[in-house]
Amino acid sequence: MTTLTDADAVDGLRDALGLLKDREQVAERLLESSARHSFDPDEELDWEAPFEEGKWFWPPELVSLYDTPMWRRMSEEQRILLSRHEAAALASLGIWFELILMQLLVRHIYDKAATSAHVRYALTEIEDECRHSKMFARVITRSGTPWYPVARVHQNLGRLFKTISTTPGSFTATLLGEEVLDWMQRLTFPDERVQPLIRGVTRIHVVEEARHVRYAREELRRQMVTAPRWSQEFTRLTSGEFARVFSVAFVNPEVYTQVGLDRREAVAQVKASGHRRDVMQQGSRRLTDFLDDIGVLRGAGRRLWKSSGLLA
Ligand SMILES: [Fe+2]
Ligand SMILES: [Fe+2]
Fold it and tell me: What positions belong to coiled-coil segments (predicted)?
């Protein structure tokens, strides 16, 4: 066992100051990038253009039922209709995440100097998320699809979480919400089989989210060094639990009913689908590699991650 000496204490202080300086530099760069590449979706996208016959609303391989026995029985038209409803369900989920995130960011900066670049960037990110949530709401309406709220129990878990979560817990949840959807959107916007409006929405989101992911990652990396040990441990456990909720809440099963499928059967087939498991694991890989690297995926938390199906 080692004891803390004055030299260690000075080193610790120097590290902490270094981290704070680093935090300001990262935020300054993100502010510059925001000033250069931010979009107003209402101006940027053609919302009135009619949808194109035979085009998808989400790449078929990323639709939950893809390659299941049920999928093989569906007509092309019904598959495309399902992609339309899943895109709306994911947009609804995106709004849920963004509302939680905005509150977490407001709590994160509440006690910090508003003149710092770190706080100014958090405010900029909130502005981005406001535009995104309005953009997602508009695309749901334009697609003639319903609003797909998450289940009551998840809605209430979110309410509790956004009220009491710790800083590292908040940034872990943020990354989970942002990175998996981001991975899907990166495959969606360049895909010529997909409706131009959906491609435009996902392109804007990918460009602006890249900064959010950077901000959350850098902050979480610092937090996993500086936060008290109990808080780091708590982050490991809660992140495993988010992963579990996230994998269940990802697609609202009401989409199956809306396109005329048997809901229970569809849910069972998605659960049994090897293709779907691969998609979700691939979508999570960049995140799980990072979380592993900074020490979040350990112990009981790691087991929860595995049981969510997101970690191989
Ligand atoms: Fe967003
Ligand atoms: Fe974001």
Answer: none
Neighbours of ion ligand 1 (CB under 5 A): 129, 132
Centre of ligand 1 from the C-alpha of residue 258, in Å: 26
For the domain that residue 99 is a member of, what is the CATH number?
A: 1.10.620.20
Ligand 2 ion: nearby residues, β-carbon < 5 Å: 209, 212
CA of 209 to the centre of ligand 2 (A): 5
pLDDT, one tens digit per residue, over 142-160 is 999 999 999 999 999 999 9
- Domain containing 209 equals 59-308
Query: pTM score, two decimals?
Result: 0.91
Alpha-carbon distance of 168 to 189, in angstroms, equals 31
Would you give the distance in Å from CA 204 to the centre of its chain? 15
Q: What is the pLDDT of residues 18-63, one digit of tens each?
A: 667 788 999 999 999 999 999 999 999 999 999 999 999 999 999 9
Ligand number with the minimum distance to the CA of 95: 1
Alpha-carbon distance 264 to 260, whole Å? 12
Based on the structure, what is the number of domains in the chain?
Answer: 1
CB contact at 8 A, 198 and 139: yes
Contact 182, 206 (CB under 8 A): yes
Residue 254 has a pLDDT of 97
CA of 147 to the centre of ligand 1 (A): 17
- Distance (Å) from CA 146 to ligand 1 centroid: 20
